[in-house]
Each structure stands twice: as structure tokens, then as C-alpha cells.
Design a protein that fits this description.
Elements lengths: L4 H5 L7 H15 L8 H17 L2 H10 L9 H5 L11 E2 L8 H11 L24 E7 L1 H6 L1 E12 L25 E6 L2 E6 L22 E12 L7 E5 L15 E7 L5 E4 L2 E7 L2 H6 L1 E6 L5 E6 L8 E4 L16 E6 L8 H12 L9
Parallel strand pairs: 2-8, 10-14
Antiparallel strand pairs: 1-2, 3-6, 4-5, 7-8, 9-10, 11-12, 13-14
Helix pairs in contact: 2-3, 4-6
Length: about 375
């Protein structure tokens, strides 16, 4: 049974996109399989969270869900159904049905099917609901990387099993490995017209089972489906400068389509862990550094190490205040949209008050405190 996506993410029905994204990132980090190896409950929660986010982040899917509920995606179709069933990925990845890029017309058509009306016939919604062999399902994986991996770029390897094109019939499902002839009843559309009460409906062609092509002799290896299940390994290149929450697409790397139809795509959601030293702000980085009081008062240099491991000496002007920021140009994150361009590094000034002073140090500070300040004070 599908769960309410708002309840899964813990947000109100009127939540903003930012609130939904924030809730999603928090939960996906909590339940990610890499953090919960072997935990089936966490794995199911992880699927539910991704399913809910896929619905709510898409304005069309969200609007359809708000109006029709689970029926907006039909039985076994659309985003909600795409996450059901077993887990085909060994590393916690799972099937994800993007609906072949379905728009609102397709969503409403699936919603009507969910209410028992089958489909719309003719031009009721501005087009014909041609079926035929179905495009392969899209697949989704998720990975959590560190900020340094996001800086340099990295490679993520995922192993999983999915349907691939049958190598014996070349995906056509026929015994001779050639495309089957067009169905004489539906003329390749995959559907036939009918009526249900006042509604004109389209139903899968009974002659070819909705394929649009009639297979007389099936392939002995795939039994006419055109696909076989196979273990696969993909290496996904994660580009330098990638941002938290980014989604990468590998066109044509999803499941094989039915009887020669195009393959789906492979998606990977990238989540970037918080770093102990650097905070990210767009393409800029912020690091907080403790600086001695004397350096702040008199000026001097401090030594820092950048995210790519370089040692830098940074000048601190005399009179620098706590919480001030010093800018070091070009030592932030790579800009993923402009090759060779980098953000800046900001050093946020902090100061730790010493708790153990020698007698000499106490005397010097006491003498400093006794000196007469100007009318404006010391600072």
C-alpha cells in the first residue's frame, strides 16, 4: 500500500519546495543503506523517502497526487508504483519508474485508469493514447560522498540486476531475431477502441497484447519478451564541484525496453556529507580559524590548509575583529557550470581566551589594562 508522501517526509501539505527538499535530505542521509548495512527496515524507509520526494518535487506529479491521491499514478504505473517490490540493487538502489517523461496528460490518463475508466479514446485529451512496446524502466541509485570527493570529483560503482536486451533475438522476442510483423487488428497502435458507458476508451489489443506487433514464434531464451535479467556493473563519474542533492542521468542505461523499444535511463542522486573543517555556500567555502589576540591586535600572518591540501599564509590586518571574514580568492569549490572557475575561501575569525597564564603574562595584561584608553575606547 502506498503511503502519503507528506507523512513520509514529515511536512505539511502546503510545504514549500525548500521545506520538502530539506526534509528529504535529512531523511535520506538517516536511512541511506551505506549507513545502515543489512537493516531491512532502514532500506524500506529509504525507498519510501525517495518515492515521496519524487512525487512532491515534481509540480505536475504533486498536483495530480493532491487531486487524486494514489490513483493519480494508476496500478503499477508512475512514481508511486515504481518503488514497490523487491530491491534489485545490492547496494540499496532500486527501480524507479519515471513514466517515460509523462506529462499531465499521461498522469490524468493513468488517474482515469485507476478509477476504472481504462483510457481516453480518440482525441479526448488532444492526442491518441498509442501504446505499443513500452520503453524500459528508469533506474535510480543514491550515493553519499564527502566534500573533498565533491571538490575533486570521483567515481561511484554500482552493481545491480536488471532487464537487458536479449542477445539471441536482439530484443524483438522472435525466434528468428527479426522484428515481428505489425498486428493486423490494431495496425501497430497496440490499442483498440471501445466504450464504457458514456466514455470512449482504449484497451490493449487482445490480438498482440498491446505490443503493436504480433509474434508468431517466440524466442526460446526470453520467451518473447525481448529481455533477460542480467547482473550489471556501472561506473558513474561524479563531476568536480557537484552540489548536494544533484541528480545525474545516464541516458539509455536503465532497463531494456519491451520488444525493441528504447531503454530507460539510469539516475543517481548525490548527497554530500557535512565537512568538519569547511562549510559550503554555493561555490564558496568557509572555514573558522582561531587567531591569537596579539595577531588580531597587531596584525600578522596565519597558516591554513586549503581543501585541496595546499598550505597558505594569510595576512591578518591589525585590529581585525572576531567573526570578521578574510577572503582568499579562487580557493573555494570548482564551479560545475564553468570549467576552470572556482569560488572563494572565506576565513572566519575566532579567538580562544587563554585560561592558563604565566605571572609575566598576567603582569603584561594588567599593565595594558591600566593604560589610559582614548575617548573612543580600545576598539
Amino acid at each position: 500500500m502506498n503511503k502519503n508522501p507528506y507523512d513520509v517526509l514529515g511536512v505539511a501539505k502546503g510545504a514549500s519546495d525548500d521545506e520538502i527538499k530539506k526534509a528529504y535530505h535529512k531523511l535520506v542521509m538517516k536511512y541511506h543503506p551505506d549507513k545502515n548495512p543489512g537493516d531491512k527496515d532502514a532500506e524500506e524507509k529509504f525507498k519510501e523517502v525517495n518515492n515521496a520526494f519524487d512525487i512532491l518535487k515534481d509540480p505536475q506529479k504533486r498536483a495530480a497526487y493532491d487531486r487524486f491521491g494514489d490513483a493519480a499514478f494508476g496500478a503499477g504505473n508512475g512514481a508511486s508504483a515504481g518503488f514497490g517490490g523487491g530491491n534489485p540493487f545490492g547496494s540499496g538502489a532500486f527501480h524507479f519508474d519515471m513514466g517515460g517523461g509523462a506529462g499531465m496528460e499521461d498522469i490524468l490518463r493513468e488517474a482515469m485508469r485507476g478509477f476504472g475508466f481504462g483510457g481516453f479514446g480518440g482525441d479526448d485529451m488532444g492526442g491518441r493514447a498509442s501504446r505499443g512496446a513500452q520503453r524500459g524502466r528508469d533506474l535510480l541509485d543514491s550515493v553519499v560522498i564527502g566534500l573533498k570527493d565533491a571538490y575533486f570529483g570521483t567515481t561511484h560503482t554500482v552493481s545491480f540486476s536488471s532487464n537487458v536486451e536479449c542477445d539471441k533475438c536482439h530484443g524483438f522476442g522472435t525466434s528468428d531475431g527479426k522484428e515481428a510483423p505489425v498486428c493486423p487488428r490494431c495496425h501497430g497502435r497496440g490499442t483498440v477502441a471501445g466504450r464504457q458507458g458514456f466514455f470512449a476508451v482504449e484497451m490493449p489489443c487482445p490480438e498482440c497484447n498491446g505490443l503493436g506487433h504480433k509474434i508468431d514464434k517466440k524466442c526460446s531464451k526470453c520467451d518473447g519478451s525481448g529481455t533477460i535479467n542480467k547482473q550489471r556493473t556501472l561506473e558513474v563519474k561524479i563531476p568536480a564541484g557537484i552540489e548536494d542533492g544533484a541528480r545525474l542521468r545516464l541516458a539509455g542505461q536503465g532497463e531494456a525496453g519491451q520488444n525493441g523499444a528504447p531503454a530507460g535511463d539510469f539516475y543517481i542522486d548525490v548527497h554530500v556529507r557535512q565537512d568538519d573543517t569547511f562549510e559550503r555556500d554555493g561555490n564558496d567555502l568557509i572555514m573558522r580559524v582561531n587567531v591569537p589576540f596579539t595577531t588580531l591586535a597587531l596584525g600578522g600572518d596565519i597558516d591554513i590548509k586549503t581543501i585541496d591540501g595546499k598550505d597558505l599564509s594569510v595576512a591578518v590586518p591589525a585590529g581585525t575583529q572576531v567573526d570578521a571574514r578574510l577572503r582568499v580568492r579562487g580557493h573555494g569549490m570548482p564551479n560545475p557550470r564553468r570549467s576552470g572557475s572556482f569560488g572563494d575561501l572565506y576565513i572566519e575569525i575566532s579567538m580562544t581566551v587563554p585560561t592558563k597564564l604565566t605571572d609575566k603574562q598576567k603582569k603584561i595584561l594588567s599593565e595594558f589594562a591600566d593604560t589610559k584608553p582614548s575617548k573612543k575606547g580600545w576598539f
